[in-house]
Structure formats: structure tokens, C-alpha cells
């Protein structure tokens, strides 16, 4: 058996793990690289393996850095099944076509304004490509062992990160592998805590926040202060948010603040079609989160949903105070960029950043103090107030990961640390080896290991 790291190795995106047995080849996750250009360019490179030789893909969850390469994989000849939980399948039905649409729109805009060195600029893949790959999906149930092949058995366990998110327990003969996917937090206000694996010889472990503990902060007060101070100045609050997970958490916080009369009732707009659909999906998966049916329905109805581009553009022509939640959460694309161009230059407005920002993204540059951002080929000055909220992360920090590991009935013999920036992965390795005495290795891109 051999495991090769085709992504999420010394970077926080592009999760792809190639697992080979004597008789079969599978991928665990199939994500796009995001963030730094050197990584994004790898999306255009030929995949280091032959997609036609793969027997299956096992998906941990629907986020694009874990699922976003699937349309290309199918386009390149993959004929097998893509197995994931029901909620992940429903979310991929939203996220993947949207991703393809955005790639097409970016290419059209680059050709129109001539800011690409490629003539013509082409999309990485299209909306049609994404819709086509959905035919390969086959939803499965949590906590049920599936013997897809005689030498591979897989069980999906709740990871608590977003709806449908799982870590995978893979039995390969007498070997037990665990792929963590993205781990959620034990005390998230919406998602339930991650389950605990019962056995595992080898663990492939994410390290997004491997060098940080989420600081204690009064999330309600930070959001309330940002909204109140902005509305008082006659401004608007723009909240870039991941469509799946973060948007729903923000609606929960804002709903609670309105109920307790800590913020005024101003218009709230959710300007992201996939975030709208993802919010609705919550009502069909009450067993995966902490909200009851009544609260879930109320939160889903809190914002005014904007579906069409025309509605989105009209919003920017309205100067009255409002709250806009829009994707993408890292300011890497989507409708939020149009709102950023409109609201960012004006000091009475606030941009409330609420999630992890991968290196090289506009969100990361904004939080690092840059005030001139290139958007759609033009430079825009950012004079708005920038507020950072760290407590809403859907990723476990290093202490929460250590606490999760301590609950294992039996310690894994080997841990491969992935899905983190180099400093984060190294810090988590040191924490685990010092406190839990488990050997850890940080794999590099394309590094391969015999199991």
C-alpha cells in the first residue's frame, strides 16, 4: 500500500490524497488549490496520476479546496464513483456549478478588459463540466462501514466542520487509516462536536490552525459594535463569508443580537445564491447541528435573498445603511468583489472579516494592512474600517486537536500533518510530539509513503 500527497502538503488548499493497494487506486478528496499564485497554477498542470486508473473518490466534505477539482477529474477521464455523505452531495450540487460559473465569468472579464496574459483567457472548467461530474456522485450514510472493494472498507464519521463533513476511517487489510478532513470545534454554536475515532494506525491530520489557539473574544459584542458604529455613521457593513458554514453562523449571531435588541433592525441581504441554497439545506439535516426546527427556520428567513445579478447591482446603488453577507469569504471571487469595490473606498463603511484567510488572497492582504487591492484588473483603495473576527472559525485550533487526539482509545502510530501553512503544520507537529509522544511527519507535495 502506498499513500501519495497530491495536495494540502505544506499548504492549506488542494486536498488530494492518492491511496494505492495491490488491486485498487482511490483519491481521498479532490480539491482546488487556492491562495498563492504558485499553488493556483498547479490547477492547470496535468494531474500527476492518470484519472482513468482511479477506481473511486472518497470525499470528506464539500468545500472547494476539497471538492473543486472533481469536474476536471471527470473531464480528464475518471469514470468511477464519488462517494460522500448526503449533505455533502447536496452542497456539491451548489458549490461545483457555482465554481464553474465563476471560472467562466473570470475568463470573460479577463478577455473583455484584457488583463490576462493569455489570449483568449479560458476557464479552468465550466458550469456544464461541473454539472456533468455530479452524475458520478453516490451519497452514503454516516457511521456505516462500506466495503467498496475487497481490500478497502470506509466509514464516514461526523467531523463537525460543516454540514456533511466527515473524517474517514479506512480499513485496508490489517491497516486502519484515518483521514481527518477538516475538523470542527467542540463548542461551535451551531455544528455538533466531532466524533472520536475508535481505532487507527495512521492518521492524516489537518493543521489549518496548528500554530494558534482561537482567542477568547466576545463574538456577540464585536459584531454588535461593528454594526452599531457603522450604522451610526450612516454606513453599511460588508461581511465576506464562506457560503457554507460561516454564512449560517453569522445569521445565527445577527438573529440573536436582534432578538436581544443589541442592534437595530436594518436591512440584511444575503447576496450569494449558493449561500442561500446552503442555508436552506440546514433545515433538512437537523441531526448534524444544534438548532431546533423552529430556530433553524427563523434564521434561514432572517435575510433578504438576492438571486439575480441585477438585484446585486441594484444593492450597490442604494446608499442607505444595511448589512450585506456575500461570498467568497477570502475575497477571491464572486459577487462580494463588486460590493468591495463600492463600499471599500468609503470610511463610513465596515468590512467585517470572519474566517481563515489563505496566504495570497485579498482577504489576507487586507488583514495584513494592505489598502490598495487589485480587483477585476484595477486598483482600488480601501478606506473602510476593517474588523477581524476570529472566534467564528469552523476549524479546530491546536489545543482542540490535542484534546480530540487524547480521546482516542488507542493512539495512532504515525501522523501525517497536512492542510496547513508551513508554520502551522510545524507547530502542530511539535505540540503532538511533545505532549502526546506520537511520531509526526509533514509531507511535501508529491511525497509518497509505503504503509
Set out the fold topology.
Blueprint: E1 2-5, E2 16-20, E3 25-30, H1 37-40, E4 56-58, H2 64-67, H3 70-75, E5 81-85, H4 86-113, H5 127-133, E6 137-140, E7 146-149, E8 152-158, E9 166-172, E10 175-179, E11 202-206, H6 219-232, E12 237-240, H7 246-259, E13 268-271, H8 273-281, H9 293-300, E14 304-305, H10 309-316, E15 323-326, H11 336-343, E16 350-353, H12 362-367, E17 372-375, E18 378-381, E19 385-388, H13 398-406, E20 414-418, H14 422-435, E21 439-441, E22 448-450
Parallel strand pairs: 3-4, 4-5, 5-6, 10-11, 11-20, 12-15, 12-16, 13-14, 13-15, 16-19, 20-21
Antiparallel strand pairs: 1-2, 1-22, 2-3, 7-8, 8-9, 9-10, 17-18
Helix pairs in contact: 4-5, 4-8, 6-7
Q: Please tell me the CATH architecture of the largest domain by its name.
A: 4-Layer Sandwich
Q: What strand order characterises the main sheet?
A: 6-5-4-3-2-1-22
* CATH uppermost class of the largest domain: Alpha Beta
**What value does the average pLDDT take?**
94
CATH topology of the largest domain: Metallo-beta-lactamase, Chain A
Domain tally: 2
Amino acid at each position: 500500500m502506498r499513500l501519495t500527497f497530491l495536495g494540502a502538503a505544506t499548504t492549506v488548499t488542494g486536498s488530494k490524497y492518492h491511496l494505492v493497494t495491490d488491486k485498487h487506486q482511490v483519491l481521498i478528496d479532490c480539491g482546488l488549490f487556492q491562495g498563492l499564485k504558485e499553488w493556483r497554477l498547479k490547477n492547470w498542470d496535468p494531474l500527476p496520476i492518470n484519472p482513468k486508473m482511479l477506481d473511486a473518490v472518497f470525499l470528506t466534505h464539500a468545500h472547494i479546496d476539497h471538492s473543486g477539482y472533481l469536474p476536471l477529474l471527470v473531464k480528464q477521464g475518471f469514470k468511477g464513483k464519488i462517494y460522500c455523505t448526503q449533505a455533502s452531495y447536496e452542497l456539491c450540487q451548489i458549490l461545483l456549478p457555482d465554481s464553474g460559473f465563476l471560472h467562466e465569468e473570470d475568463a470573460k472579464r479577463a478577455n473583455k478588459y484584457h488583463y490576462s496574459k493569455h489570449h483568449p483567457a479560458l476557464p479552468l472548467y465550466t458550469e456544464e463540466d461541473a454539472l456533468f461530474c455530479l452524475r458520478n456522485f453516490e451519497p452514503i450514510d454516516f457511521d456505516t462501514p462500506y466495503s467498496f472493494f475487497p481490500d478497502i472498507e470506509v466509514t464516514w464519521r461526523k467531523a463537525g466542520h460543516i454540514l456533511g463533513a466527515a473524517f474517514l476511517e479506512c480499513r485496508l487489510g490489517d491497516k486502519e487509516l484515518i483521514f481527518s478532513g477538516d475538523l470542527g470545534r467542540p463548542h461551535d454554536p451551531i455544528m455538533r462536536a466531532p466524533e472520536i475515532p475508535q481505532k487507527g494506525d495512521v492518521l492524516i491530520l489537518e493543521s489549518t490552525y496548528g500554530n494558534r489557539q482561537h482567542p477568547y473574544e466576545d463574538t456577540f459584542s464585536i459584531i454588535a459594535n461593528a454594526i452599531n458604529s457603522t450604522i451610526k455613521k450612516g454606513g453599511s457593513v460588508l461581511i465576506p463569508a464562506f457560503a457554507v458554514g460561516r454564512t449560517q453562523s453569522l445569521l445565527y449571531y445577527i438573529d440573536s443580537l436582534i432578538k436581544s435588541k443589541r442592534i437595530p433592525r436594518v436591512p440584511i441581504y444575503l447576496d450569494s445564491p449558493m449561500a442561500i441554497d446552503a442555508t436552506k439545506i440546514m433545515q433538512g439535516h437537523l441531526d448534524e447541528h444544534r438548532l431546533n426546527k423552529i430556530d433553524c427556520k427563523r434564521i434561514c428567513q432572517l435575510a433578504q435573498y438576492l438571486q439575480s445579478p441585477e438585484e446585486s447591482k441594484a444593492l450597490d446603488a442604494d446608499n442607505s445603511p444595511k448589512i450585506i453577507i456575500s461570498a467568497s469569504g477570502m475575497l477571491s471571487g464572486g459577487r462580494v468583489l463588486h460590493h468591495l469595490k463600492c463600499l471599500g473606498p468609503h470610511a463610513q463603511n465596515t468590512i467585517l472579516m470572519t474566517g481563515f484567510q489563505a496566504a495570497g488572497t485579498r482577504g489576507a492582504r487586507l488583514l495584513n494592512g494592505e489598502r490598495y487591492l487589485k480587483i477585476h484588473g484595477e486598483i482600488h483603495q480601501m478606506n473602510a474600517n476593517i474588523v477581524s473576527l476570529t472566534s467564528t472559525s469552523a476549524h479546530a485550533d491546536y489545543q482542540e486537536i490535542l484534546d480530540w487526539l487524547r480521546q482516542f482509545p488507542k493512539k495512532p502510530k504515525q501522523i501525517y500533518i497536512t492542510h496547513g501553512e508551513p508554520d502551522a503544520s510545524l507547530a502542530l507537529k511539535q505540540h503532538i510530539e511533545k505532549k502526546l509522544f506520537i511520531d509526526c511527519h509533514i509531507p511535501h507535495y508529491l511525497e509518497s509513503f509505503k504503509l
